[in-house]
Amino acid sequence: MKPSPFQYRRVSSVQEAIHLLATNPDSRIIAGGQSLVPMMNLRVAAPDLIIDISRLNDLNSITVSKAWVRIGALVRHREIETSETILKNLPLLRLAVASVAHQAVRNRGTFGGSISHADPAAEFPACAVLLDATMEAISINGPREIAAREFFQGPFTTALRSDELLVAVRVPIASGYHFSFHELSRRQGDFALAGIAARAQIHGSIWNTEWVAFGVGDRPILLSAVQQLFSNRDANSVRDEEIFAAAGKDLETLELEPAIVSFKQILVGELVARAVSDFAKRPF
Amino acid sequence: MDYAHTIRLTINGRSVRRFVEPRLNAADFIRHELGLTGTHVGCEHGVCGACSIVVDDVVIRGCLIFAVQLDGSVVETIEGATETRRVEALQTEFVERNALQCGFCTPGMILTAAEFLSRKPAPSRLEVRSALSGNLCRCTGYEAIVDAVMLAAERLR
């Protein structure tokens, strides 16, 4: 359970980091290391070089404008837990962060790390997709922006090229939404068996909803049948059986054993029902 | 590029300077290089909490950080927390309540609980269980540990 040998460089500028990425094809960025190091310890990952960006202070702040919140890639999960800016402008992230691993991992793990690692069971990629975030990357070829809905391409696979460094995630501030976040796992802090991030604009009994499921497919999945269920209809008339049927429809093309697909359909149906209950009570 | 690096850090209030291979993790460094064996190695992938240490004021997994990354950091282990008596209330209640048997998980439990109580001085039992969910114990069944943390919280208030 020790990693294979590698070289280490701690960089003091973004320039240094992207130069190393470009000239070392078998290198990986290390920020918090809370996903990378377990993989290295298990020898699932064996980079020749790890590039430590943890001292790049330009990447560790949360800034806000009227239209967006910009989360630097090195912002720790711990800061998402405590930031007033996040609570006020992006309350979904505050809901989600409580489900991220355990406190020791949240103390060190980073937002950018979670996004660029793209674990299908992770919370923040799903939130980024729901909130239509934009990922800001840079390489020796210059800066590039990628929309969240195009960013997650498969398990641990993103649109980032191997020589690109994620520097920030920019999330639009949208007002007038209620949010809900639910996750099921065997024990607190375990990887999600299923999870949803959702938002709703509530006009009386008509809800305009959007839903993203995670932990079920190879990337965050937009639940369009569930969204359709609520469109132009009195939300109070939607029955549980319809919720489970819609969730089932959204997951029917999952490429997994049938028993596992059924399992995930039931879990997601349950989580959608819980979110519907949240929206009905409007606590958040 | 170097195959080994000089690192300088402060550990339990003392400055140390060592020469380490990149793949040496902090828990192994602390145990074998520095002889501080209160930090334990369990799962080596971040789920059991036996390796918990305090780095730059926060509790982290010692198995998920390499010693080279500690260059310039301030580190505290269970030994340091004991020396400064920072965790004395918890240690007393753990002993009183029999919240340790083999003791393997105990340093991690104490450091994690201490950080939790500093952030949340008056928790419920459920909150304590949630806070310690990243520290696994194979001996006690956890009830005594939760009791001890609740009693220490009361004493500290």
Spans of chain B of at least 5 consecutive residues whose pLDDT stays below 50 are none
Number of strands of chain B: 5
| Mass-distribution shape of chain B | elongated
Helix and strand run of chain A = EHEHEEEHHHHHHEEHEEEEEEEHHH
- Note the run of SSEs of chain B as H and E: EEHEEEHHHHH
> How are strands sequenced across the largest beta sheet of chain A?
4-5-10-6-7
Based on Cα principal axes, name the global outline of chain A.
globular
Number of helices of chain B: 6
Regarding quaternary structure, what we see is heterodimer
Radius of gyration of CA atoms of chain B, rounded to a whole number: 16 Å
Helix and strand content put the structural class of chain A at alpha+beta
- What is the end-to-end distance of chain A? 43 Å
Largest contact between chains: A-B, 32 and 33 residues
Radius of gyration of chain A: 19 Å
Q: Percent range for helical residues of chain A?
A: 25-40%
The percent range for strand residues of chain A is 25-35%
Number of helices of chain A: 12
